[in-house]
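$ fold --in a.seq
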Amino acid sequence: MSTESIFQTHLVLGYVAWLLCFGAYILPWLTSMDRVKAHRAIATLHSFRFFGLVFILPGVVGPNLPTSFATFAAYGDLAAGLLAMLAIVTIRIRPVFWLFVVAFNLVGMGDLVLDYYHAIQAGLPARAGELGAAYPIPIIYVPLLMITYGFAFYLLLRPQPKAAQVLAGEAVVS
């Protein structure tokens, strides 16, 4: 099997495994809580995206990892992670919290989509071994991130019941 085939198989199976896990365990848990708590939980997961800086760390990744992929992925991950952290620390200031929730989701998902584009343009699937110790990031972590971004956007875009709007308004005023 070629490196590219193995990488693509790993990537697809990473999505399948996380979709199964998300549907069975994470989705019921997130839907059992209010929107703020659900977004806080998602932001907590995404706050670890600073780890993407590993793509530019010599000795962890191979010397031939395409810089067109590595640099953009590293700093995009850092930006998304910092925005997620800001969402978490501003939870008591709801308008600011929601601003950071929207920001980390837009920046984070945009970063991952552009990372896929850069990876394909740079031929990364055929050179996946250059990811070195960072190989699990696109295979295990990125699928979960993409799935939770999808759910976060669903939560952000779905209409909020009137009673929940009133309670949320009272919570901000209190």
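$ fold --in b.seq
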Amino acid sequence: MKGCGGVGKVSLDDVYKLHVNDIYRYLFRLTRDARQAEDLTQETFFRAFLSLDDYRGEKVRPWLFKVAYHAFVDWHRKQVKRPVQLVEQLPDRADPLVEDPAETVVNKEMWGLAQELLRQLSEKQKQVILLAAIPFSYAEIAEILGIDVADVKRSLFRGRQKMRKLWRDGADGEER
């Protein structure tokens, strides 16, 4: 498999090891459910394996995120009837004992607020903001979501603008 960001030829096992955590975190942020994120992560790599014939030599990481995005969209369409549950914690750090407990509390509260603000955005704005935070280039985000680069830039700008406004409105409401 070529196109692993300059790594050369690598096995599927190597690709899995290199990208499984990032794919999981992305899907966890979308689903807010650890089990579902695990299932979708496995679905992503299963679909990637099945579609190796369609792989055109592009960079592996954006291609995998595109597969993950489509797995999420398919799952989400089936879940429309059930409300999404917000999870209290986000497993971003390998060793949570290294963090200062006060920092952990603040980060948890900030992530909760960010999740609340993200829920108020359009689906496209939310996707673009999450992918930009990973970080992906505009071109990679456009390919993952199947939109043009101008739409990525516009959605990112408008999404960030809306989040800032919602943040300010929330802060103004607390001062009163």
